[in-house]
Amino acid sequence: MIKIKGIKGYHQLKVQEEDIPKTAFRTRYGHYEFTVMPFGLTNAPAAFMDMMNRICKPYLDKFIIVFIDDILIYSKTPEDHAIHLRTLLELLRHEKLYAKFSKCEFWLTEVQFLGHVINAQGIQVDPSKIEAITKWENPTVPLTSLTRKSVKFEWGTKQIEAFQILKDKLTHAPILALPEGVEDFAVYGDASHTGLGCVLMQRNKVIAYASRQLKTHEKNYATHDLELGAIIFALKLWRHYLYGVHFKVYTDHKSLKYIFDQKELNMRQRRWMETLNDYDCEIIYLEGKANVVADALSRKEIEKPRRVRALRLELQVDLFNQIKEAQKQAKEDENKEKEGMKGMIEQLVKGDDEILRMNTRIWVPVTGGLRERILEEAHKSKYMMHPGGDKMYKNLKENYWWIGMKKDIAAYVARCLTCSQVKAEHQKPSGMLQQLELPVWKWEMITMDFITKLPRTSRGNDTIWVIVDRLTKSAHFLAMKETYSMDRLAQLYVNEIVSLHGVPLSIVSDRDSRFTSRFWQSFQKALGTRLNFSTAYHPQTDGQSERTIQTLEDMLRACVIDFEGSWDDHLPLMEFSYNNSYHSSIQTAPFEALYGRKCRTPVCWSEIGENQLSGPEIVQETTDKVFQIRERLKAARDRQKSYADRRRKPLEFNVDDKVLLKVSPWKGVVRFGKKGKLSPRYVGPFKILKRIGPVAYKLELPVEMAGVHDVFHVSNLRKCLADESLLMPLQDVEVNEKLKFIEQPIQIEDRREKRLKRKKLVLVKVKWNSRRGPEYTWELESEMRKKYPHLFQ
User: Fold this and answer.
1) Which helix (H) or strand (E) element contains residue 25?
2) How sure is the predictor about 246, in pLDDT bands with cuts at 50, 70 and 90?
3) Does the entry feature the keyword Coiled coil, yes or no (predicted)?
């Protein structure tokens, strides 16, 4: 047998266009609607089950069993099994359904499936489902239905044997039969003052059983309501078996037999009667001694959880003797000054155990080094698990005392390397806002970034290149394929940007492999453009592109909902809409800031006619507007910095300081042995080599992290106060292979001479092994011979 577990199957079903608003929900971040089937809708399981039945219809009950996202493949021979597995996997691939490999089990002779264990012998009960019964302790109080008046409750050999037989009967395969047809169902229900119990049977075979404890308010119910509640509990639990068929309900509470004829009912009973009337059932009275299974399930003793005082320390006996000895040494003349007690030593009171105390708290002197031992026990032991300074002080002050105890505890916690690595910060982010240079003219300083992993269009486009002017805020949105070569990107850049606005002075971008490639850097160097990259894992550096991308993504979502066709069909109009919309920082539309006049749109015609400018007026108006925009940008930047700095705190480090590096921004970059939520928040410590600007630092990274960019923003760093001898082992750190990639020249393809007026340059065409395939650049032969002499051998 093979068990296949699906993953996110619901999301493979699209919601009909007219039904999308029905899935709406609202959060403080805005209004959202599902375009695919979400979890939680009433008909979602039925719709998904219907889809799975239709997909697997040719093979159902031949070698496949399906329940929601659980698929079971069964075969008689290993050869057939391999064929059946391939058939199913090809079917899932064709339907674009996915399975979670970690939850799949292959080539089994026994499998746990839907609460049962299936093997060659048949279907058995899952051991985990009956663990509560197999570990059922012997009753310590008599079962009410098995006792009579004036009869002493005895627990002897016969009772033990009967109790063991009952447990065996309840835990072996015969008690869980598969239902056959829809006839002869019987429900046995019972209630006690501790819980509800019920059994579903068909022709004297148990189909299922259930029990639960009473809730707090249910313990106040009358017996009549408790017994009726047990029946309602069973009907709701097994509705899929009982709804629409005739069945019998057995209870040991005789008055329920006449519940349908009872005239006076309280509100609770009326509500339950509405549920009861949905079923075609007949209630039959059964004496208590005959209803033993349901009765036992309702009366199973639940041991109350024990209260454990986890804050009490289990100290070895010799610790008290060591404290007593240390106190004697501390009172000697040569140690009194070190203790710093002065006149307070007379306030200590000696107890019956000869130990000095301050009130009721044991005095721990400096002498003997016992303070460090107690602090370590109260902080690093298995039953304390690194509490914070305040919690640790409250835990210890009940039993111990010394001068400066709270200060010592705070210093100890601050030096704990484990706490530094795993504890979250609850303070303002570090580093004041540092703003980029303000541009002087239009399209002199630009930013750029990519929106990737978009739905592939009919033209094959799946990426948008977003390029924004930092002065006028005007932008270009270029549709492209993620697989474009660097030659193609350079050609697109020249055709769409350079041809319209000229060559910019500087470009701000993140550290995308396309922007950091040798080809792109050589290309921009030839154009005379300076490249400014963000620090590692700090996207705020390129905040202009990130904010524009956020707006563009909102426009893309709206376009998909309101208009038909591929998103790249509407991208030019999205660019038009963005550039013609009011921008708060420059207090005008980017189009007007760029061209000096408002854009004519199909709706607004106010720009036509007598209001148009001509001649020298346009030049003067454009120059004035650039000056005005710069002033508005400066005011907006001041407001933004003031607002941002209110939520930040200044933080500076010195060269050679040891710091910890935040791991949380590295999703998909660095993977730890402890995956997911169990990975540390910080890694290190690392030494600071150099300060880069006001809020960035260059770190000395180990060989294991050689591919990671070594300059980080101060918000990703934390001061390390731990001992230098402590160091987190990096053998569990695995850096993404893409980051370890270093571009290297492969071979010299061509050679040519370039003659200038007074000298001659020898250039060679170099083939590089970039991440995105081979790239070619022309380099000086002299430089290449120095760096890579092996290419010329």
Assistant:
1) strand 25-27
2) very high
3) no
